[in-house]
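@channel sequence for tomorrow's demo:
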Amino acid sequence: MYTNQQPPPLAEIKDISAHHRLPERRGFRDFSLTMGKTRKAPKFAVMKKMVTSKTIKKHREEVLNPNKKDLTKEKLPRNVPNVSSALFFKHNTALGPPYRILVDTNFINFSIQNKLDLEKGMMDCLYAKCTPCITDCVMAELEKLGQKYRVALRIAKDPRFERLPCTHKGTYADDCMVDRVTQHKCYIVATCDRDLKRRLRKVPGVPIMYITQHKYSIERLPEATIGGAPRF
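structure tokens (generated this afternoon):
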């Protein structure tokens, strides 16, 4: 179209571009011609939150004060167990001859190993008439143990033993004996089980009979400090 190397004049270029421009749509605007520069938001420095004197005082009162009372614990209802009237004095006044002694499985077995007669050994320890008591769950434990404890089962079926019925389910004797002496303070518990003795020591006013040096001894019974019982 042009033979020389000079560019066409500017007015001619505008006419050519206007001739080849597409028809403008209705409602369409060319924002490339009207849009200005984007505005940038001003940048601010990140400021640290200032700790006020009220916050420091509140922190000292709530966290750093070890003597502060916990109000949530005070609002909880107190569950205080009823104390037996037999424990009005320093020792259990409900205990007295003839003594009723709850016997468990291992106490009968250790008595056989040490060649001790239960009723005679208890009377030698306490210097009073004693009535051995055995519960249904202890009898069930002896029956479950089989032929190895057949002699202990024969001794437990002695008519001199008082049989106490159980109302709970199962044959676990430790829980039965702890619940029984917690409700009724008229028993002495005869056992050689360490765990059971540890649980019985938490129940006030319940003496514990055990075997030591091939004879019976008792703890937590002030009247029995004479004889074979240990002195406190």
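heads up for whoever presents: The CA atoms of residues 48 and 55 lie 15 Å apart.
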